[in-house]
Each structure stands twice: as C-alpha cells, then as structure tokens.
Amino acid sequence: MGDRPLIYGGLCLFVALVTFPVWKGVAAQSSTKGPEVKAVVDKKQCVAPRAYMREAHMELLVAWRDGKVRRQERHYTARDGTVYNVSLTGTCLTQCHGSKEKFCDSCHEYAGVSAPNCWGCHTSPPAEPAKMAAAAAGEMR
C-alpha cells in the first residue's frame, strides 16, 4: 500500500518522458509536413510512380547517367510506354518540376541529405535556352 504513490509517480514520469517530443512540437508550433512536391506542368504521371521517385529517384538518375554517358541510351521508356528524353535539365526540371531551388534543394534540405554533384556538369534551370545555345555556339567556333 505504501508503494502506490511511487508507482503512480513513476508511471506519470514515464508517460511524460515518452510523450515529451510531441508536447515540445506542439509548444513550438512546428510541423512535420514536408515540402510540397508538385509538378509545374499539368502532367498526370511522372517517369516513374510517385512512391518510387520519393524513395529511389537517385537510382533512376544514376541509371540514366550511366546509360546516356556509357551506352549512348538517349531515351527512357516508362512503365506506361511513354518515351522520355534522358535529361536531368531538359526533362525533369524543364518539363516537370521547374526549379532546382524549389524542387531539388527544398526536399534535400528537408530530408537532411547532401545534394549530389549533378550541377558540376549540368546547368540548373531557369538558365534561359537562348543563353545556353549561345554559349554552346561560342564553344563550337
């Protein structure tokens, strides 16, 4: 009978410690909702299902890179039969997601992962196509 207050006190302390992160989040008025990922254009389907792209987009991009650079595979056929140009800037960012800062960087920052070195070779949109064409023409001369 004399242990009852200690047991109840211990249980209350345990519950308080276990639920502390929840109460801290409520007090800070923070949200665990991630960045809103949506296509800029009204496309019904991405090159792969959304769940796959959330978890393993990096595998697809590495496969695209290896195929294009090492085996000259310039096109990708999706599960639904749609053929896409294999291009990070030309397909992913220009046709679907728009901005590296609003799309790639916001998700990588939220997830706490370092961004890959894609931009060592690629220019990130919105680099105007006219400027890119002029730069390419200048290099060819």
Could you walk me through the main structural features you see in this protein, from its secondary elements to its overall organization?
This protein has 141 residues and is mainly alpha-helical. The protein contains six helices and two strands; from the N terminus they run H-H-H-E-E-H-H-H. The termini are far apart.
Our count of helices gives 6
Give helix % range: 55-70%
Number of distinct beta strands:
2
Any idea what the shape is?
elongated
- Unreliable residue runs: 127-141
What fraction of residues sit in β-strands?
under 5%
**Largest sheet, spatial ordering of strands:** 1-2
Order of helices and strands: HHHEEHHH
Gyration radius over CA: 24 Å
Mean pLDDT: 75
> Could you tell me how far the N terminus lies from the C terminus, measured between alpha carbons in angstroms?
94 Å
Protein name: Sulfate reduction electron transfer complex DsrMKJOP subunit DsrJ
Keywords: Membrane, Transmembrane, Transmembrane helix
Organism: Geomobilimonas luticola
InterPro entries: DsrJ, Multihaem_cyt_sf
Summary of the model, kept short:
The protein has 141 residues and is mainly alpha-helical.
